[in-house]
């Protein structure tokens, strides 16, 4: 997909997500629909959220095969994105030190933190592909925009 087309897809995703968010006040429902929207639009292998609970990321709403249910802070791509508070794009997860292999079919990954208004990481979005090098700067920017909006409404959502 060419860059301009991909940017258009993310603009449309943002618009669709804003429609979902404007009508929902339950956090789990919004996370579930967000995972479904991204998964089916981006046609990925696995798309979902891990929620911060104490010193772990706990599996939240997702689309795709069975996943790891608990990830320690700083471990794997998701745990590292949480610890650093920044997005990670990994072209080949098999070369990532300490990668947690939840699925043998995942070959590349992008993880984007969801931060509340005061920059505290509340969750991470994890998106996996069976293709190597599936995610790029356009994906990072597009997903960060949507996750920033999610972070802005996080505290108004009921748990």
What does this structure look like?
The protein has 159 residues and is of the alpha+beta class. The chain has one domain (3-156): GAF domain (Beta-Lactamase, 2-Layer Sandwich). 39% of the residues lie in helices and 25% in strands. The chain has four helices and six strands, in the order ααβββαβββα. The chain has helices at 3-22, 27-42, 76-84, 137-153, and strands spanning 46-53, 56-63, 70-72, 88-90, 108-115, 121-129. It has a six-stranded antiparallel β-sheet with strand order 3-2-1-6-5-4, sandwiched between helices. Helix 1 runs antiparallel to helix 2 (27-42) and helix 1 (3-22) runs parallel beside helix 4. It is globular and about 40 Å long. It starts with a helix and ends in a 6-residue tail after the last helix. The model has no long low-confidence stretch (mean pLDDT 95).
Short note summarizing the structure:
This protein is an alpha+beta fold and 159 residues long. Helices cover 39% and strands 25% of the residues.
What descriptive keywords fit this protein?
six-stranded antiparallel beta sheet; Beta-Lactamase; 159 residues; alpha+beta; 25% strand; 4 helices
